[in-house]
Amino acid sequence: MRREPLLNAAVFLGLLAAVLWAKAMDEPFTITLATRVAILALAGVGLNLALGLGGLVSLGHAVFFGIGGYAMGILASHAQSYSPLIEWPVLIEGTKSMPVIWLVAMAASGLAALGIGALSLRTSGVYFIMITLAFGQMFYYFAISWPAYGGEDGLSIYVRNGFPGLNTLDPIQFFAICYVILGLALWLFSRLSRSAFGLALGAARQNAERVMAVGIAPYRLRLVAFALSGVITGLAGALFADLNRFVSPTMFSWQTSGEIMVFVILGGVARLFGPVVGAAVFILLEHVLGGLSEFWHIYLGAVLLVVVLFARGGIIGLIAGREVRHD
Amino acid sequence: MSLILFIEQMLNGVQFGVMLFLMAAGLTLIFGVMGLINLAHGSLYMIGAFAAAWVAGMSGSFVLALIASLAAAAAAGALIELTVIRRLYDRDHLDQVLATFALILIFSEGTRWLFGSFPLFLEIPPYLSGPVTLPGGIEYPLYRLAIIGVGLLVAAGLFALIARTRIGIQIRAGEADREMIAALGVNISALYTIVFALGAALAGLAGALIGAIQSVQVGMGEPVLILAFVVIVIGGIGSIKGALVGAILVGLTDTLGRVLLPAVFAQFMAPQAASSVGSSLASMSIYILMAGVLVMRPSGLFGKA
């Protein structure tokens, strides 16, 4: 218990230190890697809210990641071609402003999560996993076959969107944006997990009948958690699209859902910093193993198997002990 | 649309459904008996297809290729059951999803490493190629008809196996109460390995049969895997009958949706827009079907409530 906050602080500062070191050494690629870690960790924090706190095993979080990405892609592509998004009944133009894009991405993915959650949460267990997976596939095929925004080829954005007062094309400034947002999301997660809402949600995960017996409806708790989770993952999607200046249906693919889940599990389910550690280790593995062998996914699979079979509680559980969970 | 074209499309839908059944039967058996979600089932399908393409390339015999696909997939299934899957039975679904996701990564990259990234091809043998004329003057490819036949035979065999044989009784008893049949002296872990290998062999057979129509390549298993999941969720997890009904339903919805929806939209939209809206709706149609079924019946058509 004592070790976990120390570990968390070390991880959070370590990410910053890596970037400052890269800045001093003039290695922009390392900064880009760290930015990817921050963004993917943010997506994982979103999933961790549903998966860790709520016990909702969603294999469809790529939906929200993709919606966030496409919110950025659609708004920015209209802005760069100077064609309005909608002309009637009100004129809506595209935009290159990050804060506006973020709001749209969060609103859109939140609404999608409310809709998907309202239907999916009627089921539980395997059926829930499968129905969220099916919604993911639905959006994936929709994105592939809808030609207006690039279809299978995706959308390229030529210049990164702007943030007032910052030069987002400078890698370290863009990293700073993502890092601050990640910090805010982590703060929100830790507040939520200790709030009355978070405690009730955790109780509903452990024993739904008892929660109902004291007069709380698990369905509504879970729906709110699922929607919030979608909002955070959607924001991560918008940032990820901005990092690559590219969106494609791959963001909706079930492999993306699987990878976001891998971040959470690798780091440690329900741990505050689980997704951060998971995303960092994943990116590091990808970078190191990808340099060793073209077939690095084999090693990734092996590492994953070992973690699932032998290191329950993920990497944080391995280092800081398992005292946190009581179920 | 002419009646002949419609019947042809119906047959295509049934053929697709029968193939999905081969995948879904194994998945639903494994889930029903062991309570395991196996994402790596698509990898077994891929292994079957690669084994068939490789053996057909070496020997030139399609029958040998089919036998090889069954053997390779069953062996791979038994191997992963003994090494990995066995440890997952009393874990929660999350661990099962993750571990079998890891197996997909290992199998896909391993196959890419062995066979390269280029697709292999499996030829339809001469005695099964060409069209056949059905009553009513409908010309239909013999090979697709053969797939329907093989699939229905396997379905009948599976029903007989579950309902009539000793091992079928043990499987059903294992589904109902695992401790009890272990206490009655049935070797439960051997039974599990057999069930897993049986499911794997069916997936391998499906891969080999489809490999002759499509190309054999890494990653071919996952789209089919997800459809097979849709099938067993619609049918009710654990039910073979549900898997058969769900498979035909999904096969028909998918095939007919692709043909009919663009035509329907063309009635009241510009042709260009109709074909794009129609085809995007068609590719979503089975997921809409599944969501609809689950909203009405949260544990599938034939599932235990």
TrEMBL record, chain A:
Q: Where in the cell is it found?
A: Cell membrane
Alphabetically list the UniProt keywords: Cell membrane, Membrane, Transmembrane, Transmembrane helix
Q: Where are the transmembrane segments?
A: 38-57, 62-80, 100-119, 126-149, 169-189, 219-240, 260-285, 297-320
A GO MF term: branched-chain amino acid transmembrane transporter activity
Query: Could you give one GO CC term from the UniProt record?
Result: plasma membrane
Which PANTHER family does the entry mention? ABC TRANSPORTER ATP-BINDING PROTEIN, HIGH-AFFINITY BRANCHED-CHAIN AMINO ACID TRANSPORT SYSTEM PERMEASE
Please give the chief subcellular localization of this protein.
Answer: membrane
Q: Which InterPro entries match?
A: ABC_transp_permease (IPR001851), LivM-like (IPR043428)
* Membrane topology of this protein: Multi-pass membrane protein
What is the protein named? Leucine/isoleucine/valine transporter permease subunit
Q: Which domain of life is it from?
A: Bacteria
UniProtKB/TrEMBL annotation, chain B:
Name of protein: High-affinity branched-chain amino acid transport system permease protein LivH
Q: Does the keyword Secreted apply?
A: no
Which GO terms of the molecular function aspect are on file?
A: transmembrane transporter activity
Keywords of the record: Amino-acid transport, Cell membrane, Membrane, Transmembrane, Transmembrane helix, Transport
Q: Where are the transmembrane segments?
A: 12-32, 39-56, 62-85, 97-122, 142-163, 184-213, 225-252, 273-296
Taxonomic placement: Bacteria, Pseudomonadati, Pseudomonadota, Alphaproteobacteria, Rhodobacterales
A GO biological-process term: amino acid transport
Provide the membrane topology annotation. Answer: Multi-pass membrane protein
Species assigned in the record: Roseovarius gaetbuli
The answer to keyword Magnesium applying to this record is: no
Give the record's GO CC terms: plasma membrane
Domain of life from the UniProt record: Bacteria
Q: Of which family is this protein a member?
A: Belongs to the binding-protein-dependent transport system permease family. LivHM subfamily.
Localization in the cell: Cell membrane
Which Pfam families does the UniProt entry name for this protein? BPD_transp_2
